[in-house]
Design goal:
Elements: H1 6-14, H2 22-31, H3 37-47, E1 58-62, E2 65-69, E3 90-91, H4 96-102, E4 107-113, E5 116-121
Parallel strand pairs: 1-3
Antiparallel strand pairs: 1-2, 2-4, 4-5
């Protein structure tokens, strides 16, 4: 067991030393907003009574990867299938890159393969929360010191 800061964990993920699922990648990208544990604790304390939103990603299959759509993304369905009973399959012949170029409101995790994830968010976070930093597991562009 080894302690890693969010940027260190992302680096270890990139080098395939460790693996984590897209929701954990998303949360590590969110934690990269904070430069210290004290800053994270203050933020958590300040927004503790604001509430939270429960949501579920919806998978969109593109020709060269997958996109986990999250609420607020322009492609997120109006009535998502939370239970799986409707058996709705969202797919397109477009490439992930084309879907990004064509879009304007993003809240998504792009999955090219198990070790190539990217977070795209440009919507306003609810309940005074912080959006994750938009990090692609192919490059390093974060400044957290947690």
């Amino acid at each position: 067991l080894q302690w890693s800061s969010p940027p260190e964990a992302i680096e270890r993920f990139k080098s395939q030393e460790i693996w984590f699922a897209p929701p954990q990648f998303y949360e590590l990208c969110r934690l990269c907003n904070f430069s210290s544990l004290h800053e994270l604790q203050k933020f958590s304390s300040d927004r503790a009574l604001e509430g939270c939103e429960r949501w579920m990603p919806v998978m969109l299959t593109a020709s060269d990867g997958y996109i986990q759509l999250l609420p607020g993304d322009e492609l997120y369905p109006e009535d998502p299938d939370y239970t799986g009973e409707k058996k709705i399959i969202m797919s397109t012949d477009k490439k992930v890159e084309d879907l990004i170029k064509e879009g304007s409101e993003f809240h998504r995790i792009v999955i090219k393969n198990m070790n190539n994830l990217a977070v795209y968010v440009n919507i306003q976070a609810k309940y005074k929360h912080r959006n994750p930093l938009m990090i692609n597991s192919d490059c390093s562009d974060y400044s957290s010191r947690l």
